[in-house]
## 1
Amino acid sequence: MKRITVLSLLVSASLSHAPALAQESSGSAAPPLPDEIARQLPKGDVVITYAAGQLTDSPRTDYLVAVHGAGDTREQPTPRPLLIFVQKPDGHYRLAARNDLVVMRADDGGQCDPFNDSADGLVIKNRYFTVQNEVACGAHWTDYITFRFDPKRQDWVFHKEISQAWRLNDKPDGDALIADPATVTDSDSKRPVTFSEWRPREP
């Protein structure tokens, strides 16, 4: 089932309920993707976008890389793995974690691609990172999913998901769209979910 049926008309997540995740670098603003990382990408996949920043306790630069199949379209969608690469003390990079479902597929957003149409897509801030899926054609919604680095586990765990929708204003005055209240899903400290284990909510 496409995730738009799960999210309904979710849009414009309010990050006031989560740590501010000002973008460190993403896409073309990020440092060039190291060749060593490029060589570790899944065979046949190409990069959609990537972001560079601090993903662990180390001050070294790590990378989030979203990839997809070369022929990925709404008509023929492919999985979109999100890969976490961390820089080791010797300067080399290793693939530390992977999730194939956190980045929405091309056909999960109705008329628009919910990831390629996002303003940022991937945002990193001080060991937290957010995956931003959003649509602003036909339906208007965003779905922001944030993970944080857990030093005890030496892994990333789910932190928060914030979804919100806009609906048409049926009154002649005022804004054309009205924001519905945000839906916030917090993590459960007693049952932490790692980045690799995270799955979308069931409908």
## 2
Amino acid sequence: MTTRSYDYLPKEASLLREDIFVKEQGFVDEFDDIDDISTHLVLFDGALPIATCRYYFDSGKSAYIMGRIAVAKAYRGKNIGAHILKEAEDQIRLSGGRKIYLSAQVQAAGFYEKQGYVTSGEPYYDEYCLHVLMYKQLEAGNE
């Protein structure tokens, strides 16, 4: 498997997000203004895009913001989400990032907790379902 990083929303990430968040989960629109300021990661199995996530630096919070992870249905349950999340965390760490925030769907909070994320505050309704704010403090790595 190979991960590619883009400073724009590539077609592969767009199609994965459309299939999962709009067609499968029923979100009205998965695309927004942070696509233009985000780094987009796409994990490929050969030439097939199988997962994607995005992140960007928020200067107001002095931290990175991570978007939802999208994993193709056939690849779920194979630790692919954890794999692409770790790749994003590694890139953020190498960029000097030390803290990541994300808004997780409540049903996905357990996944992020297993990856070292901590819940902050109470669940709230956003983007058509319940979410919870989570964060992770990154350790300094070998830069």
## 3
Amino acid sequence: MKGDDTSWLDQHFASWKKNIYTVNDPSAPLTVPKNKGREAMPFLTYIITRYPTLPHTSIFIHSLRYQWHNEDPMYDGIPPLTHLNLSRVQARGYHSLRCTWTMGCPAELHPTSPSSDNDDRSQNERAWASVFSTFFPDTPVPEKVGAHCSSQFAVSRARIHALPLEKYVQIRDWLLSTPLPDQISGRVLEYMWHFIFGMGAVDCEDAGTCFCEGFGLCGLKCSERECEKRYVLPQFATIPNGWPEVGPGENGWPAKGWAD
């Protein structure tokens, strides 16, 4: 969003090529046709625009340094990017920037048997099956869909190019025209990226393996789903003002130093 502080990217990743899309500013150097579908619109616009000139690896992230979905004890976006094993991204093709199963795994959605509730999740389940059939009419709708949440991931050029440019244009055209509200259309794609980029309907890697091979954090005490002191889901999604210097321990956030 216009006004978001993205200076941390230049400060800590000066040698990386950044493509920063400002979704609510038509005059920005990089922008989108319409601010719709949350992060899905800039992600798709980047792919469509850069399709002939994609780098070896593309990393898709949200704009702010501190966000609840960053896989770090202090929700800091720098450590996951610093430690990401790009060789493993190339070998795997697609790699989430999260390893913990909290939200998304082992099965976030059941598209063929959606809940009868009317909350965002059940609406997303019902929409997901229809949208999937539109994009992939020759593929049966999966019974279960699972992936590490939050739409931050790395993808190889080869895996993006496995689908033709026209497919990404189709997906963006759908996003531009769908009457679904942003929280539904965005989440439909949030739990479809891994499939679009060639993974199975359920892509829930063992947390310890993900941390070790994906980020070099080996020797952690882990279960299949999580590793101790790496991540706690906060009660609220809004970072306290002044985080991490001011405000920890309030609004459902862990106290500063909880992972020391």
